[in-house]
């Protein structure tokens, strides 16, 4: 099965019930702040990022992807104690590019999903560090081996989660 | 012909959203309160909305978890309760004796502090709080507790566990508060090494480890050394446990300084309950003073202590009293315990009442003559 679409018409656009649009990011945020209390290593994952990528590639609409990423990112900033906007910017950019790539790639393919999540987690980390150092002037240090492990873990988790979240999709006419 | 805005609609929306957020970030930086301090009013409002949306769900999940655990531990899993109870009683008795042996040191320290006009800050009042969530981000070490301004919490109050320091209150909402852990990169605390009294600044690194920074190489600092709060940061009271030295590394960016990595005394990755210090005082709390008096009395044999010890110590134990624990040889029952020897320290100004100068008391006889002075 080809993972690249020959034309825009091959790609299906999906929509979501309004409740799903609200509750799924909220659930991701809730689990993200709740589970590390019991499983300290869970902070390695970024569930809100996975949900951002999922919505973006399913809708295949860069504006919707950007807005979804911005809202989820800002909420995550509000909860994490980080300066408001740092994750908002990172996830806006990720949402935009994920939706743009979703138009060209077969995002139903598990291999593609894995690569998308791996790449976008790295991109998100890179944006985070650039904002921290350049805009905020902090002395944040990026440990690339840690970021690679983080990207790998996120990508591995994203594949089954995408399959679960597929049940919430509605095909647009 | 397609208009410019129609053609670049997606990119323009992205640019507008990024511009808005960058402006917001710039405003936060411009009003640059210290990063570890509370946020400005508008930022606080956004955090308040997010916390208000998520914290009820967190409390709900926590309540379910507690209910399940409580049912299991209180009604089902009681297999070792009797054995645990016995071992805890023995432990309590051992700790009482241990407390008695250090009581005089504490009194002496107090007298000397008063003599030199030194103001000690004691933990006067604390509030226990349940940890209900975390930041969920790898880059920030923040936890949420279930107490807020309604419970009297304020920003910058120190947060501890019985094992050691945890962090300080950052933002306070009506019923929830954010606590910035000492392992966060933006946190800071004044510390000193217990054995060498070298002072330093504690902060977290990118990996969430504790480190003491801005130290010049010193051969006296060794792995295993205990590190305590110095009280110099005006947040944590002096003398609280911070951690133990794990390793010493060169600071790559600031030669010749070194970084000393610590293992935290409190288990920061598995926090369930914490204590928020809401009041410090130059006097001890009533309960602390009572404990100290009890321990002092137990050590120096006034009437109450003799009552207590005569019931516990071998030799004064009534024959056949099998219920009394054998405190003289607690290690016989518990091979891991450390034998405790209670001995009063030598008196500073010995007199005829000081042991061993004091003679044994004569047996009391109500019908006999009154004792000679």
Feature tags:
heterodimer, A: 173 residues, mainly alpha, two-stranded antiparallel ribbon, 6 helices, 67% helix, disordered N terminus, B: 373 residues, alpha+beta, 6-stranded antiparallel β-barrel, 34% helix
General description of the model:
The complex is a heterodimer of chains A (173) and B (373). Chain A is mostly helical and 173 residues long. Chain A has helices at 18-34, 47-59, 62-80, 86-104, 110-135, 144-165; strands at 14-16, 169-171. Chain A has a two-stranded antiparallel sheet with strand order 1-2. Chain A is globular. Chain B contains 7 helices and 12 strands. In chain B, the strands form 2 sheets. Chain B has a 6-stranded antiparallel barrel with strand order 1-2-5-4-3-12. Chain B has a 6-stranded antiparallel barrel with strand order 6-7-8-11-10-9. In chain B, β6 (189-193) and β7 form a beta hairpin. In chain B, α4 (81-115) crosses α5 and α5 (286-300) crosses α6 (303-312). The chains are: A mainly alpha (173), B alpha+beta (373). Chains A and B meet through α1, α3, α4 and α5 of A and α2, α3, β1 and β2 of B.
**Relative helix content of chain B:** 25-40%
Shape of chain B: globular
Number of helices of chain B: 7
Overall average residue pLDDT of chain A = 86
Low-confidence stretches of chain A: 1-9
Structural class of chain B: alpha+beta
Describe the SSE topology.
The complex is a heterodimer of chains A (173) and B (373).
Chain A: E1 14-16, H1 18-34, H2 47-59, H3 62-80, H4 86-104, H5 110-135, H6 144-165, E2 169-171
Antiparallel strand pairs in A: 1-2
Chain B: H1 4-7, H2 9-30, H3 41-76, H4 81-115, E1 122-134, E2 142-145, E3 158-160, E4 165-172, E5 177-181, E6 189-193, E7 199-204, E8 210-215, E9 226-229, E10 241-250, E11 258-264, E12 273-281, H5 286-300, H6 303-312, H7 330-333
Antiparallel strand pairs in B: 1-2, 1-12, 2-5, 3-4, 3-12, 4-5, 6-7, 6-9, 7-8, 8-11, 9-10, 10-11
Helix pairs in contact in B: 4-5, 5-6
């Amino acid at each position: 099965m080809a993972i690249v679409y020959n034309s825009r018409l091959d790609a299906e656009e999906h929509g979501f019930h309004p409740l799903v649009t609200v509750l799924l990011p909220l659930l991701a945020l809730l689990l993200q702040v709740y589970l590390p209390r019991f499983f300290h290593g869970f902070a390695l994952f970024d569930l809100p990022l996975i949900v951002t990528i999922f919505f973006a590639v399913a809708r295949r609409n860069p504006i919707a992807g950007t807005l979804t990423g911005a809202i989820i990112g800002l909420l995550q900033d509000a909860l994490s104690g980080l300066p408001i906007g740092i994750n908002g910017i990172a996830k806006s950019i990720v949402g935009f590019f994920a939706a743009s790539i979703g138009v060209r790639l077969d995002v139903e393919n598990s291999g593609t999903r894995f690569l998308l999540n791996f790449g976008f987690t790295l991109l998100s980390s890179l944006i985070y560090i650039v904002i921290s150092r350049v805009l905020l002037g902090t002395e944040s240090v990026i440990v690339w081996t840690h970021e690679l492990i983080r990207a790998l873990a996120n990508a591995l988790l994203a594949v089954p989660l995408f399959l679960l979240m597929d049940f919430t999709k509605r095909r647009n006419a | 012909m397609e208009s410019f805005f129609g053609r670049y609609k997606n990119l323009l929306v992205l640019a507008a959203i990024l511009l808005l957020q960058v402006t917001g970030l710039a405003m936060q930086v411009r009003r640059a309160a210290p990063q570890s301090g509370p946020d400005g009013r508008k930022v606080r409002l956004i955090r308040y909305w997010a916390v208000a949306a998520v914290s009820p769900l967190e409390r709900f999940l926590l309540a379910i978890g507690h209910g399940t655990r409580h049912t299991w531990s209180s009604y089902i899993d009681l297999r070792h309760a009797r054995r645990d109870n016995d071992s805890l009683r023995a432990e309590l008795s051992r700790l009482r004796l241990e407390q008695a042996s250090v009581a005089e040191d504490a009194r002496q320290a107090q007298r000397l502090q008063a003599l030199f006009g030194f103001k000690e800050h004691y933990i006067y009042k604390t509030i226990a709080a349940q940890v209900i969530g975390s930041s969920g981000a790898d880059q920030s070490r923040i936890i949420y507790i279930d107490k807020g301004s309604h419970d009297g919490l304020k920003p910058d109050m120190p947060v501890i566990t019985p094992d050691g320091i945890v962090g300080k209150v950052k933002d306070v909402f009506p019923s929830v508060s954010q606590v910035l852990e000492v392992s966060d990169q933006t946190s800071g605390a004044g510390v000193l090494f217990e054995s060498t009294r070298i002072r330093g600044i504690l902060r977290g690194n990118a990996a969430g480890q504790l480190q003491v920074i801005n130290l010049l190489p010193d051969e006296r600092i060794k792995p295993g050394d205990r590190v305590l709060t110095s009280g110099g940061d005006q947040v944590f009271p002096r003398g609280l446990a911070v951690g133990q030295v794990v390793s010493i590394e060169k600071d790559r960016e600031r030669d010749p300084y070194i970084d000393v990595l610590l293992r935290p005394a409190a288990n920061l990755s598995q926090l369930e309950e914490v204590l928020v210090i809401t009041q410090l005082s130059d006097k001890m709390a009533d309960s602390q003073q009572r404990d100290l008096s009890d321990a002092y009395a137990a050590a120096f044999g006034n009437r109450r202590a003799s009552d207590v010890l005569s019931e516990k110590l071998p030799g004064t134990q009534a024959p056949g009293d099998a219920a009394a624990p054998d405190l003289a040889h607690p290690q016989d029952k518990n091979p891991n315990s450390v034998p405790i020897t209670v001995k009063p320290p030598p008196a500073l100004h010995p007199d005829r009442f000081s042991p061993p100068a004091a003679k044994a008391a004569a047996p009391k006889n109500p019908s006999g003559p009154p004792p000679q002075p």
